[in-house]
Amino acid sequence: MNRPDDTALLTDLYELTMTEAYLEEGMWDEAVFSLFARKLPARRNYLLAAGLDDALTYLEQLRFDAETLDWLASQGRFSDRLLGWLERFRFSGDVDAVPEGTPVFAEEPLLEVRAPLPEAQLVETYLLNQVHFQTAVASKARRVVEAAAGRDVMEFGLRRYHGTDAGLKVARAAYLAGVGSTSNVLAGKRYGIPLAGTMAHSYVQAHDDELEAFRAFVRVYPSATLLVDTYDTLRGVQHVIRLARELGEDFQVRSIRLDSGDLLSLSIAAREMLDEAGLPQVRVYASGGLDEDTVARLVTHGAPIDSFGVGTAMGVSADAPALDMAYKLVAYAGRPRVKLSSGKVLLPGAKQIYRHDVDGVARGDVLTNRDDVAPGRPLLQPVMRAGQRLPGATPTLADIQAHARREVSRLPPELRALAPARPPYPVTLGRALARAREHEVELWSAAP
Amino acid sequence: MNRPDDTALLTDLYELTMTEAYLEEGMWDEAVFSLFARKLPARRNYLLAAGLDDALTYLEQLRFDAETLDWLASQGRFSDRLLGWLERFRFSGDVDAVPEGTPVFAEEPLLEVRAPLPEAQLVETYLLNQVHFQTAVASKARRVVEAAAGRDVMEFGLRRYHGTDAGLKVARAAYLAGVGSTSNVLAGKRYGIPLAGTMAHSYVQAHDDELEAFRAFVRVYPSATLLVDTYDTLRGVQHVIRLARELGEDFQVRSIRLDSGDLLSLSIAAREMLDEAGLPQVRVYASGGLDEDTVARLVTHGAPIDSFGVGTAMGVSADAPALDMAYKLVAYAGRPRVKLSSGKVLLPGAKQIYRHDVDGVARGDVLTNRDDVAPGRPLLQPVMRAGQRLPGATPTLADIQAHARREVSRLPPELRALAPARPPYPVTLGRALARAREHEVELWSAAP
Known about the structure:
2 copies of one chain form a homodimer.
Chain A: H1 13-25, E1 30-39, E2 47-48, H2 52-61, H3 66-74, H4 80-88, E3 94-97, E4 103-104, E5 109-116, H5 117-122, H6 124-148, E6 152-155, H7 163-176, E7 181-182, H8 185-191, H9 201-206, H10 210-220, E8 225-227, H11 233-247, E9 255-258, H12 263-276, E10 283-286, H13 292-300, E11 307-310, H14 312-315, E12 324-332, E13 335-336, E14 351-358, E15 361-369, E16 377-378, E17 381-385, E18 388-389, H15 397-409, H16 413-416, E19 427-429, H17 431-446
Parallel strand pairs in A: 6-7, 6-11, 8-9, 9-10, 10-11, 15-19
Antiparallel strand pairs in A: 1-5, 1-12, 2-4, 3-5, 3-17, 12-13, 14-15, 14-16, 17-18
């Protein structure tokens, strides 16, 4: 599927028409846009920031090539001035961002872009497309990792995610959040995520009987994971035990996989059967429509499951497949900008987040204007200046995973639980923002 | 972001390891795999088949190039035999499929692949990735189109879909289902979908006042859609009216856009204001977190809204972001295959769907073995033979949209409603399949 590089056109039409208007009006002044979630989904105590690396790569690489410009010209919608500007386009702005893998809360910017207005506007759609989705999935995946309470989690749902890019980015976001491996071969190549895989029911079905399928598979992959539920789970476990007797010391099967039925009782029965057969080293791997709730239930009830295979529900973030996330103009030409649409009141100006830790535990954030100070550590950091990514703004995915683990471990325990934290984590406004909000609320209440 | 063509690696690791095992075992016989939804989501009376074109393009174009093979070799997991086989890989099989835009029901195959086992297995992940997602979105989008009851629907949610491929495929699937336009510029280029766009709040905010922003925008785009809710919706409408007085005969604004608040009362008030100002030609466009339910409510209550902008909830299929869809082996080496996993019993053999119409209304389907016959029209059609797409298996997207409109119009009215149809549409099994099901249920009940 070789395609021309059409990334530049992966944008909303109005980004181009507004850019046209800004050029016409000579509105070149500096704008600040803030990318943040207006509120959190009901079942998220925090979001885990993700997607920054793809956002920065886009800003570094965005170009309108000749083929793209020709197509735009053929549409008869755009002026030569706009097309000339697009031809010369290089993103020249600054970006400050919260590092990937950092927990963030409602209204806290994940990133802020400062650039001439047309540049900062033009990049909106793609930045949101990547940061929104990866953050949604990392936040969901972290819940699954918490539920697994130290047991392995593998991501393997490429087939039911939303297209090819989602397949890659789910693997990335899940790994960043602490998932240990993926079945997605390309994600292994591109991101260096450990690959893992088992076998499908079709493999067992294609053989005349299950035991014969197991025999054949371990001839090729001696340390395989054998799927035991194609016909009857516990009979499948018996077949694994029989295979162990046949192979004696050559038996190296690493695990069995349960993919249906009552995973609690089946895992208990399977574990007992394996232990009684002298196979304590054979691990139990469970899958089949799992999410953080089902994983938590199995763990809480002591299911003897060593690894969880999780796919669809995690990778589509089934209970919150989208976040209320936006990219909003907060300053132009040196003046803060507000917006008063019903229910969508906006805090003006570039911002900073200060996170206040006590004894290594985060106790609250203060959201301030960028130049204000507050107690705690500032979370937004410079990552791009004049269109160039700064040194240090390209952590490895393993670094990001470690950062996420560290930052999440600093959250209060009730934030890490699956249930909604009551009260939620405190995010307060610095004095200037608090005044701005009061003023806005007054303005909004006064509107006819 | 130019990348090597890595599509071949966009697969689950186990597709490669199972292929390795099949080569080792010499299991070259013909397999039939069936791609179908095991059941429908609670709020779907049918699914609208989509994604076939991408599936067939994949089968035609799938190759393992030198760079891909080198990387696979470097992993130390795969034999030279497998790598050599992948190097020579060309999909040589047959595909029968339901045309895109056809309503289908639980257990009905959207497509069936018949090919030597290793080939048919290898392509599983990508086929599901495309057909599952596009079908989920087309099915959701059709509900929005039904709810709009003839009013325009525009798709504009690229920013909150799941990555870049989702952005394109949502635009495609929504258009196929009857949505009229998209904001996604690349979808316009690639699929020829009409482009549409309005303006963002940032445009209004960047100007000193709203009226000045409107004046500036219509100088560039005289027939623009003006967004009126940045500060106060009805004051925004007054600004549009004032602009009309200023411009006199030069006023060509096509519509106003409401994006927040109570869209029913605001649209009524805005319509009255525009009519009283002698601007009956200015249309009212509504957006802001809409889905089929909110659209239906507005239409039912007679909201004077001409067009709906729908994004996130439609494009992530928010109430059913994934389907229980699978790609299952149903025959190998001429013998039907079953699977008895708890709750996932499988109907064996290649199939056909017969849809029985009475007076132009579909009254029921019969799912049969491929070679059986039943009253009605067969829905699965040959689309690929020996790896070559058949003439007629490349309808235009406009053709598919027309086909969808026609096929949906043949469904009984209760199927097209948003509420669950009671009783659901009848899908019965042909005699041979009914016997197979009984036999399976017996087998399954008999399992210890």
